[in-house]
Amino acid sequence: MKIGFIGLGAMGGLMAANLQAAGHDLRVHDIRRESAAALIEKGATWVNSPAEAASDVGVLLTCLPGPAEVDAVALGENGLLGALKQGSTWFDFTTNAPDRIRALHGKFAVQGIHVLDAPVSGGPKGAQTRKLAFWVGGEKNVFDHHLPLLKAMGDEPSYVGAIGAGCVVKLVHNCANFSVQTLLAEAFTLGVKAGVDPLVLFRALRQGTAGRSRTFDRLAEQFLPGIYDPPAFTLRLACKDMSLAAALAKAENVPMRMAELVMEDMAEAMRRGWGDRDARVSLTLQEERADVSVHVAPDFLRHD
Predict the structure, then answer these.
(1) Which CATH superfamily is domain 2-169 in?
(2) What homologous superfamily does CATH list for 213-302?
(3) Are 16 and 27 in contact, with CB atoms under 8 Å apart?
(4) Confidence of residue 46 (pLDDT cuts 50, 70, 90)
(5) Which of 75, 189, 241, 279 has its CA 20 to 30 A from that of 20?
(6) 302 pLDDT band (50/70/90 cuts)?
(7) Is this prediction's pTM over 0.70?
């Protein structure tokens, strides 16, 4: 397949190399020509603008730093709009703003061009080894048609909904990831300052309940089905443990800003009389604040 690929940075260059290894004919462009050197050496064609990359290809791929760069490539001088032919498909791998990619989808749809947002997760190592997740929003039939192309770059391409849904999933994933990292940094500094060797602490924490299960897997236990009775671990006991941890942090002079927010929610849940329910019942307070239910029927969760 003849493919245009724009954006050959830490992720895009490796993804393009996997497409090339799979036998695809690439037309490549980047603001730095040197980033395409290895691809050109193996037969890729260098082009001088996004419009040239889009000319006469069935599929155009972009992997760019952010929304501003996507808009410039799509709508700027010598951009994609007006260069992509009717019936062609554009996959944008950029972590973008959902409303921005939806707006572009509308502009390109008028010209009969399919636009799908497909942000990726896995980092440069995943891009090199084809261990990438693609979260794709857009037309399901277009996703299905190009699934082999996505699988040439990653092992986990998933259709997640209408245009923009891919970006929503990626932003939620990264928000959770960085927030968990901050909370773990708090907890880890507490343990080390309280006298436990960091390597010993690291190895020990990985053997606990949280350490033995993947972060998102635990959501299916109580939060997603919305089942907090009977409790696996009561809120009352969780509050006791958090209070002891807070006392230790105070004694060691370790700031615990994230943990304090957690304790505020747990205290509110206790005031509501939920002490003998499962500790994760306090998570429902966020559903109230956001005015949304995240419940999934247990039967559906069992299939995942």
Answers:
(1) NAD(P)-binding Rossmann-like Domain (3.40.50.720)
(2) N-(1-d-carboxylethyl)-l-norvaline Dehydrogenase; domain 2 (1.10.1040.10)
(3) no
(4) very high
(5) 75
(6) confident
(7) yes
